[in-house]
Amino acid sequence: MIRILSILLFLTCLLDNSFAQGEWNNWVFGGNVGLNFVSSPPSVFLNTGSGSAGSMAVISDSSGQLLFYSNGESVYNRNHSLMQNGNGLFCLTGTFLSPVCAASMVGDEFRYYLFTIEGDPWSGNWGLYYSIVDMRLDDGLGGIVVGQKNIPVSGGEEIEHGIMGIRHENKRDFWLISQGRRTMAANRYLAFLVDKDGIHEPVISYSSVSFSIIGKGYKLAMNEEGTKLIGQFGKRVLEYCDFDASTGQVTPLFTYDFAEGAGIEMHLCFSWSGNKLYVSRWESGYHTYEYSLYQFDSSIADSTLFANSKIAIMKKGNYFGALSLGKDGKIYKSEYDEPMVGGWNDSIGIIRQPELSGMSCGFEPSVIDLHGKGSGGGFPQILQRYFAYIHHSGFCQGASICFEPNTWPPPDSLWWDFGDPSSGLANFSNDSTPEHIFNAPGIYTVKMIVRHVDMRYDTAALNLTIEPQPMPNLGPDRMVCQDQPVILNAGFNPQWTYLWSTGETTPTITVTNTGTYSVTVTSPNGCTGSDEVVLSIIPGSTPEPKPIKHN
User: What residue ranges define each of the domains in the chain, with the CATH number in brackets?
Assistant: First the structure.
C-alpha cells in the first residue's frame, strides 16, 4: 500500500507540472503567428520574426523553450530576431510545399541541421541543401556556422518538392525523405540516412505512378510508427506504400485517384495510431471555392477497402488548409481562402477525435482565433529525437484496453494515470504495457509519465473516447400463436451495423417460424453486443370452414 501511495503522490506532483514533449510545444507559421501547446487548447503568440505561406521548421528543446525557426530563407532566434548569419538561405518559398526541415545532429546536443530546397522553375535550378545551426553562438541565441551554409546534399539534385523526416528503426538516427522529379525513367522516392557520420547517399525506391509530378502541394505523409507512407502525385493521386525504417526502402502497394473535381492542391495527415488518414483538398477550378476534408481508413492496405472507406467530413467548406498532428493527439487545420477574395483566414480548425470514424471525429472549423493574423497554407515541420506518445487498442466500454508507450530513449520507468478515478487504485499503473477497463462511456484523458535513465522526465497524454457497448435486447423467450408475425427489434442507431442469424442486416426483422434468433450489433470502432431469443410457435386453433349446403 505504501508503494501505491508513493506512486499516486509522484503522479500528482508530475502532472501538476508541464514536462510533456517540450520539443513539440511551439509552432510558428502563417502571417507572423504561433501556437504554444503548454495549455489546452494551445495559446496564441503574435509578432514572430517571420511568416510563410508554406510550412516552416521549428526547433524547441526538451523543456519546451523555443530555440529557433525558419521559413527556409531566413532563421530567427527565440527572441524572434534574425539569427546570426541567418539570412540568404537557398529555398523555394511562398508556396504551400514543405521546403524546409530542421533536426538535431545525431550525437550533438548543440548543433542542428537545417534542410532547404531550392526551386526555380524559370532557371531550372533545383536541389536539396543543408546549413548548420550552432546554439552556442551569439551568447546562446544561436547562429549559422560560417562556411556551413547552403551546402548541397549529394544525391539531392533532383528534389524540388517537399521534404519530411522520420525516425530510423533504431530510434537514434533519422531519414530525410522526398520525391524526385520525374525523369525519363520513373518517379522516385529518396530516403537520406542521417546519422553521427553525416548525410548519406539516398536510398532510391521507384513509384508505380508514371505521370509527371506537377502542380502544388507535393508532400508526403508518414505515420508515427514509420511504417506507412502516402505519396502525392499530380493534383489528385495518392500512392499507399510500406516504409522500412531500417533500410529506407519504399514499397508501393496501390494508388487512389480522386476522380471528382479538377483538383488544385492537397494536404495529408495521419492520426497518432496511423489508422486514419485525413486529406484536405482544394477540388475546384479557379474562383469556385470548393474545399473538402476527407477521412480514409488507413489501417487496411487493400485498394478496394481503402477506397470504400472514404468519408467526406467537410464538403464545399469555407476554407482550405494544411493539416498537422499536435502533441495532444488532435489534428489542426489551417484555414486559407483564395487570395483574390480574402486570402488567409485568421483562425484554425480542429479535428478533436481523429481516431474515430466518420463524423464522430469531431471536426470543428474556426476554433482558435489568431487575432487578425493569417494561418496561411502550412504548419511547421517537427522532427526531434525525443518523442513520447501512447498507442492503444480498443474503444469499448467494459472491454480491456491495452496501452503501449512509444518513447526514446528506452525509459527507466513508466507511470500511468487512466483518467478514471471511479476505478479506484486500478486507475494507476506502473506496468510497461498496462491494461484498463473503462466501465462507463465518455472521454478520458490517459497520461503517461516517463523517467529516462538520465533522470529527464517526459509526459504524454491521450484523449480517449470510450464508446457505449451496444446492448441489444430481444426480450424473453416466448411462445406465439401461429400466423402471428413477430417483430424482433435490436434498437436503432444510425452508426451501428447489424447482423442477424438469418443473414439480415436491418435493425428489425420479422419472423414466423419456431427457432432461436440472435443478433450482433457493431459500433463504428468495433464495439459489439449480442442477444438471442427463442420463439416457440403454437399451432393455431382456427376452425375449419363449414361446407356450404346447396339446395
Answer: 258-385 (no CATH), 390-466 (2.60.40.10), 478-538 (2.60.40.10)
pLDDT score recorded for residue 348: 92
**At 133, which amino acid appears?**
V
Q: Answer whether 208's CB lies under 8 Å from 255's CB.
A: yes
Q: In 3-state terms, what secondary structure has residue 305?
A: helix
Phi first, then psi, for residue 381 (nearest 5°) are: -85, 125
3-state secondary structure of 190: strand
Closest to 384 (Cα-Cα) out of 126, 50, 22: 22
pLDDT digits (tens, 9 = 90+) for 14-26: 444 444 467 888 9
In whole angstroms, what is the distance from residue 29 CA to residue 50 CA?
8
Query: What's the pLDDT at 84?
Result: 97
Q: Pick 334 or 217 by higher pLDDT.
A: 334
CA dist., res. 233 & res. 534, Å (int): 57
Closest to 383 (Cα-Cα) out of 12, 23, 13: 23
Candidate ranges 65-79, 104-118, 368-382, 389-403; pick with highest mean pLDDT: 65-79
pLDDT in tens, 389-433: 788 888 899 999 999 887 766 788 999 999 999 999 999 999 999
CA angle 367, 369, 374 (to 5 degrees): 115
Beta-carbon count within 10 A of 248 CB: 23
Per the structure block, which three cell numbers stand in for 365? 472549423
Given the C-alpha cell 516517463, which residue does it identify? 450
Question: DSSP string spanning 254-270?
Answer: EEEE--SS---EEEEEE
Q: Phi, psi at residue 165, to the nearest 5°? A: -120, 150
C-alpha cell at 486: 413477430
Q: What is the mean pLDDT of residues 474-501?
A: 90
**H or E stretch covering 24:** none
What is the chain's mean pLDDT, rounded? 84
CA distance 221 to 328: 19
The Cα 371–Cα 390 span in angstroms is 33
What is the H or E stretch that residue 544 is in?
none
